[in-house]
Inverse folding.
């Protein structure tokens, strides 16, 4: 039996915050006045939580107090199999769901998380990240941090996915650098549940995620500890990371994919700039009208009048892909579409003789209605129409 196909980026990242179900949307509208009141109240309470967390030293008492206050803010942290936690392991590995995963795990056990691709700043410190300078020396700095003999030892909490997903379908490909720090890591799984709205949105900032967390009634973070995993003899960092990824994905009931943060960035780019058909007179009209075959033939004939040496079949295939006369003509002129030119000597002789011949650039300007920047010298033999 073949394994199920890996989910695509559209299933790993939510693009809309609000629910698509009509009943849930109605419930959200009815809850909105209460949510706004909770948001305002929790903002003031959140300031006190921040001050208390800064004032108290890292200890069991601090984690208990802050965890209780976070529950009032609607951020509920739970853990399973806490007896599997090995305090000798200095590297913790987790899947990534929200911008506050490290804060939640830090309520359960003392840990430090470096903020990647961001310079040290007050915002970095206030969000609970460990300040690190640059990715180039990151691994060496983390190795020195883990090798320090200070007591009590503070483990590292790392997210090999490097980007958050919706936590439902699959995991991004684990980066190998977190597994080059030490030969033993302890994975943990993180599940996040929230009523009415999505847990996270792919292009949302951490500020908007925080406000939504304070708006909804509650957000439950469920942490489950797994047994430590040791590097096998002769196993490289890539193989080690893949083995841990499959282990975490199996515990979550999800799929370990080969998608990377670059695929997420490309997916977000396509969402922000969808490939819409140009709204012009020369594109397929959206309103009901002639059949698509008739429209395609009409547009292809327009291109054929401008570029008579291009075969009609080539024009129709490119028009079916672009849906626009201007784009098809540009593709044909720039060589993006290869074709075998047709013999147009008979067509040229049949055309009436004009007082002044028109070059290809002038013809394009008249037929298509676009400004052409071609010079006649750019063509070996200008096409005279």
């Amino acid at each position: 039996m073949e394994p199920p196909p890996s989910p695509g980026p559209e299933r790993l990242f939510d693009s809309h915050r609000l629910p698509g179900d009509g009943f849930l949307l109605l419930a959200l509208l009815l809850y909105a006045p209460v949510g706004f009141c909770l948001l305002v109240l929790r903002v003031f309470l959140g300031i006190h939580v921040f001050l208390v967390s800064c004032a108290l030293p890292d200890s069991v008492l601090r984690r208990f107090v802050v965890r209780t206050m976070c529950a009032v803010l609607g951020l509920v942290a739970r853990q399973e199999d806490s007896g599997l936690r090995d305090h000798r392991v200095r590297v913790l590995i987790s899947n990534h769901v929200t911008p506050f995963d490290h804060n939640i795990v830090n309520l359960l056990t003392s840990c430090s998380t470096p903020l990647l691709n961001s310079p040290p700043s007050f915002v970095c410190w206030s969000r609970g990240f460990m300040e690190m300078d640059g990715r180039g020396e990151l691994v060496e700095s983390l190795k020195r941090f883990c090798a320090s003999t200070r007591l009590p030892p503070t483990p590292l909490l790392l997210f090999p996915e490097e980007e958050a997903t919706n936590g439902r379908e699959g995991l991004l490909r684990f980066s190998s650098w977190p597994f080059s720090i030490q030969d033993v890591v302890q994975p943990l799984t993180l599940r996040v549940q929230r009523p009415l709205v999505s847990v996270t949105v792919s292009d949302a900032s951490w500020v908007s995620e925080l406000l939504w967390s304070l708006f909804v009634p509650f957000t439950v973070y469920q942490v489950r500890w797994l047994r430590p995993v040791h590097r096998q003899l002769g196993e490289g960092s890539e193989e080690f990371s893949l083995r841990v990824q499959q282990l975490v994905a199996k515990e979550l009931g999800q799929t370990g994919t080969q998608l990377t943060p670059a695929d997420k960035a490309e997916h977000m780019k396509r969402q922000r700039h969808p490939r819409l058909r140009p709204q012009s007179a020369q594109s397929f009209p959206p309103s009901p009208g002639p059949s698509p075959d008739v429209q395609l033939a009409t547009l292809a004939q327009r291109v054929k009048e401008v570029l008579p040496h291009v075969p009609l079949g080539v024009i129709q295939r490119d028009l079916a892909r672009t849906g626009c006369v201007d784009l098809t003509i540009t593709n044909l002129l720039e060589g993006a579409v290869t074709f075998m030119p047709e013999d147009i000597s008979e067509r040229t002789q049949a055309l009436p003789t004009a007082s002044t011949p028109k070059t290809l650039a002038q013809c394009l300007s008249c037929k298509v209605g676009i400004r052409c920047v071609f010079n006649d010298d750019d063509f070996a033999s200008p096409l005279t129409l």
